[in-house]
Every structure is written in structure tokens, then in C-alpha cells.
Write the C-alpha cells for this entry.
Amino acid sequence: MNAIVINGSPRVKSNTMRLTRAFLDGAGFDAEIIDAAKLDIKPCLGCFGCWKNTPGKCVINDDMSGILNQIIGADVIIWSFPPYYFSVPSGLKALIDRQLPLNLPFMSEESVFGAHAQRYDLPRKRVAAISTCGFWTAAGNYDGVAAMFDRMYGKDNWSKIFCGQGELFRVPELSARTDLYLKAVRRTGAEFAKGGITQKTQAGLAEPLYERKVFEQMADASWGAAKDGGPPDGAFDFTTQMAAPYRPDGKERVIEFVYTDIYKRYQIVCRAADHDVIRADFLPCTTRIETPFTVRQAIARGEISGFKTLLQKKYRVTGDFSVMKRWNKLFGAPPRR
Ligand SMILES: Cc1cc2nc3c(=O)[nH]c(=O)nc-3n(C[C@H](O)[C@H](O)[C@H](O)COP(=O)(O)O)c2cc1C
């Protein structure tokens, strides 16, 4: 199976490529990666030289001629990209446009809306599009992209993994949740290699990583800038992100964090149905956690065990200790559905 990945993300560490690598792993494909953003792919000149003057060959001399050969020779093509303004990043769009030599100028009657015939009579390729986007859901963000793939390959002739909340894949503190998704992507790759992705799997992949409110709180707290225009407060953002997945259990609590190494204090105010993180006008707390900020960060990233660290007296808990025992239930990754 000759598989290629066409990577459209200009980033060195692409969220989407994490999914794509999991997919390849599950599928057992040893794919060649074509990095559209790193290669020399100039924009199409619109001269139609590849149709009129040098049939099948572009007048521009750059990396695209090699890529066309790779596309022609591939059995499987995996497009991996983030959406940019509800389309694809410009480097990838240049590559897509430069596929014109693969078509003939003549109209094909097969398409309802009009299409150009294929230049090469090749066996049908298997195609998948993999993408992570920045909003809470993939729904509504890929309408243009999906329409483009439908026209390129025919409706239902390509598979997709479109995932919302893509920026969470780079947050080590959330790996318990994102690893579950990557595991599902690995399974999807295996299904794809065997013939096709089941509807059940597709529906599972469409489920948001976190519910919208939780995600948007974490996202807003991730920019190192305060939403209200005030000075940046990284420890407040961290505490907000840590508290965002809060799942109320009907009890009211005030959990106070005192970060002893940076002299900062915050409270997570847990109410019956929701929560807030406050940094002033404090309430009487029910649980108080005194910890170096660095220790709390390392626990959140899963680098050290919260329980062991407590035994080692690296931090101190006073007040209601039951909250510590229920921490993962209250603030951990949502349970697997
Ligand atoms: C210029 C630009 C435009 C973007 N446009 C969208 C968009 O239209 N819809 C969306 O959900 N996310 C959008 N995003 C967010 C990215 O798609 C998202 O962060 C993605 O996970 C990045 O993936 P990558 O790390 O693989 O590049 C945009 C990001 C940038 C930088």
C-alpha cells in the first residue's frame, strides 16, 4: 500500500499531525509525508499551459512536479491540515490548485455541476482528510472544505476525521482526555485500512472533547492575556484551566489554592450547578491547599503523583480532605462514553 500524507499545517508541531500519526499507526501505513508549507510550491498562474501547450506538465519549475508524481503513484492519500478561515492554509491551497495538470481540459458529463475529465486512467485512490480546528466543534467549520473534497473525489468517496478543540492536543495537563481521542483515531486508522470507517466510530469522533463551556473557559485562559484587559496572570489562568472541567456533584465548596512560591491565592468556588475562580473578595474556604506553584503544575501535567507528593509533604491540605479523594471525579477528564 503506497500511502502519502499531504500536510498543510505550517506549524513545526502540528496538532493535526498528532492525529494523523495516530491514524497511520492504527492503519499500519508507512506513509511518505509531503510538507506543503516547507516545499517550493508557487501559486498557479492560471495560464492553462498544462492543458494547451505542454499537456500534463506545468510551466512552473518547482517541487510540484515531484508531488504530482507522488499523487499519481499513491494508493492512499491522507490530507492533514488545520482549517484557516473555513478553508485550507494557503500553502496547501497552492498545492491543490497546482493539481490542474492531472485533469484534461475537456468537460466530463458525469458531474451534475460540471467537471473536467481525468488525464490518467488510474485505479481509484483511497482518500482521508484529517483536521483539527480551533472552535469547540467541527460542525459548521468544514462546510467549504467538505464541499471541495466532495468535488475532488466524489461525494462519499473520501473519509474524514474533523475534530474540534484542536489546541487541547498540545496541553500536557489534558493528555488523559486527548489520549483517549488519539486512541479512537488509531482504531479509526485500523478500520480505514480494513475497508472503511464505521458510522459508530465516526459518531464517536464527532463528540467534543469537552463540553463547549468548559472548552471555551480553558481556551480563553490559554493566551497569557486577561480577557478584561488587565495584566496577565498565568497562575490565575492555570487555576481557571484546572477548574474548567468541574463536574458538580450537588455539594457547595470553596477550594483555596495558595501558591507558596509565587505568593498568589485563588479560590475555586463550587456551587451546586457551576463554578467560578476568584482572586479577590475571598470567601471562607472549605479546603485549603498550600503548594508551590511548580509542584501543582507538575501534578497537573501528570509528571508527579499528587498522592505521593502529599505523603512527601511537598504540599499541605487543610479542611475538608474528601475533595482530594474525589479530585479526578470532580475535575478530571470526562468519563469515557
Ligand atoms: C490563520 C488561522 C485561521 C484559522 N481559522 C480557523 C477556522 O476557520 N476555524 C477553526 O475552527 N479554527 C481556525 N483556526 C484554528 C486552527 O485551525 C487550529 O488551531 C488547529 O488546531 C491548528 O492545527 P495545526 O496545529 O495542525 O496547524 C485558525 C488558525 C489560524 C492560525
